[in-house]
Design brief:
The protein is 62% helix and 20% strand. It has helices at 2-24, 98-103, 108-125, 129-134, 136-151, 170-252, 256-271, 282-298, 303-312; strands spanning 25-28, 32-38, 41-46, 49-52, 58-64, 68-78, 84-95, 156-167.
């Protein structure tokens, strides 16, 4: 009987020793800290690694230093222009002071939910509905700053706030739908008018370029025509000059009487002309006088010829 009692006592003592060992040595990870309270007084945060405590006098609280998030459910808030809206968001935070986060706050999650709801109503109450809907980033920043001011005394840092969903009243949603439809119609009309404008500008520019090319073509054609006429006139003048040169060379060796007979033939042709008046230069009158003398010498007996010649003179 005594042996059994000794065995039981031995087992109990062994269990107590093992439990004491497990209670004396704690292992904390790199993202964890142990806040130790010795006889009810905080002795600071310990870790990471192997930590030895006194299980009789020490009490511990494990704190996670990793960034965490807290979902804030839908909260109804009134905007500056008295429009009720429902908003939910997510708050990201991390503990930067383990001792303060344990000593200064009992239930951080519950406190954060309540402070987030009141802060949201305060921020939304300072903004108009249009700003709440369009300036979400500004609202996120304002919420983060105000929440961080409150949680800082708890040893917690609010790193980010993201608004997930904003539900305006049904009447506002209907008005927004109509406004969006009107805006799309306006953009369509503007886009169509811009397209017509660009098309008209393109057509006008094309017509302008066509007119310019046509004018340039006409100018080039006129220049070519004038050049051709000039060259033709030059060639005619050169031909006439050559002809006159040849005539002059031939006339140098021609008998003067032959030239006078040529003038006489020309006079006959002028006499047959339908003109009622004929003007003769003075040189032609002198020439006819010479012709008359020649005729008188060659035909002294031909009175008719002499009379015609005198009348002509």
């Amino acid at each position: 009987m005594k042996t059994i009692i000794e065995i039981v006592v031995g087992v109990v003592l062994l269990g107590v020793i093992v439990r004491t060992l497990f209670s004396t040595f704690k292992i904390t990870r790199d993202y964890q800290r142990l806040v130790v309270f010795r006889l009810g007084k905080s002795s600071g945060a310990k870790g990471p690694g192997l930590i030895m405590i006194n299980p009789i006098t020490d009490r511990i609280s494990l704190v996670d230093l990793r960034e965490q998030f807290l979902e804030i459910p839908h909260q109804t808030a009134i905007t500056k222009d008295n429009a009720p809206i429902s908003i939910d968001f997510i708050m990201f935070y991390r503990v930067f002071d383990p001792v303060t986060s344990v000593v200064n706050i009992r239930d951080f999650s519950g406190a954060a939910l309540n402070i987030a709801a009141t802060t949201l109503r305060s921020v939304v109450g300072d903004m108009a509905l249009d700003d709440v809907l369009s300036k979400r980033e500004a609202m996120n920043t304002s919420l983060r700053v105000k929440l961080d001011e409150v949680t800082e005394r708890w040893g917690v840092k609010v790193t980010n706030v993201e608004v997930r969903e904003i539900n305006p009243p049904p009447a506002v949603q209907e008005a927004m739908t109509r406004q969006m439809s009107a805006e799309r119609t306006r953009r369509a009309v503007v886009t169509e008018s811009e397209g017509k404008k660009q098309a008209a500008i393109t057509v006008a520019e094309g017509q302008k370029q066509a007119d310019v090319l046509s004018a340039e073509g006409a100018q080039q054609a006129a220049i070519l025509t004038a050049e051709a006429e000039r060259q033709s006139a030059v060639l005619r003048a050169e031909g006439l000059a050559s002809a006159l040169s040849v005539i002059g060379e031939i006339a140098k060796g021609t008998d003067p009487n032959t030239i006078l007979l040529q003038y006489l033939g020309a006079l006959k042709e002028l006499a047959n002309s339908p003109s009622t008046k004929i003007l003769f230069p003075m040189e032609l009158t002198n020439l006819l006088s010479g012709v008359r003398d020649i005729v008188e010498r060659q035909s002294p007996g031909n009175s008719n010829t002499l009379r015609i010649t005198k009348d002509a003179v």
